[in-house]
Amino acid sequence: MSAPTVPPPAASPAGASPRRRGRSLAQEVVDALTAQIEAGTLRPGDKLPTETEVMLAQGVSRTVVREAISRLQAGGLVETRHGIGSFVLARASRPVGIDPATITTIRDVLAILELRISLESECASLAAQRATPDDLAALRRALDAISAAAKSGGETATLDYAFHLQIAKATGNRYFVDIMAQLGTTLIPRTRLNSASFAEDDADRYAARLGQEHEDIYEAIARRDQEAARAAMRTHLAKSRERLRRAHEAAGQAGGDSA
């Protein structure tokens, strides 16, 4: 099985903070690979991209890549077999009791969105209070990556998830991160559903609308406005819930409840 390619980071806009160095740069590589593992792009037993492939995709040195792999090993995400490569390990049992494999219908996704509204609205508020300059730079890069992928017609769900995960990280509370990481891209409804069609919109306008909702969240966090950040996140997720509620009703009228 060929290893999936790690998506390269989006170029920073003019005036944005430059990429960090050393140990924090290694963590960015860890985050990129972890997002793929949590999303299921890299599955247990899959071989990671080679050091050279990660170097080219992420624009980092071999030393940084090796540090990132060491961190993944320490976190129990991968194992390295000498002379062969590094492989994704099966995750331990999930302590929170939510199995993403059971999220299979529109009703299930609606229930997850209800959870997200409470969870992520508070994440956004805390991020507005606690985010460091490095956190804000990482959020900016995540949004730029989503925008670039949308313009090129690429897949954006994993990048969308990475943006929401980064907000959780900016809270400084590892338990928010644990829950977000556990659910992976099951948090993003369009990985299962054609949300643009349910919104009765074309893909470009739908992507632009989502992009503006994300920008509103980021801008509130960046200006340290906790209430605006909470409200922007709640609005974003409530709109997703409403689109999917309509989809659920349509599915029920058609005599089915499958996503």
UniProtKB/TrEMBL annotation:
SUPFAM superfamilies tied to this protein: GntR ligand-binding domain-like, Winged helix' DNA-binding domain
Domain HTH gntR-type intervals: 23-91
One Pfam family named in its UniProt record: FCD
Renumbered residue ranges of the record's region Disordered: 1-22, 240-259
Segments of skewed composition (Pro residues): 1-11
Keyword list, A-Z: DNA-binding, Transcription, Transcription regulation
Keyword Metal-binding: no
Name by which UniProt lists this protein: FadR/GntR family transcriptional regulator
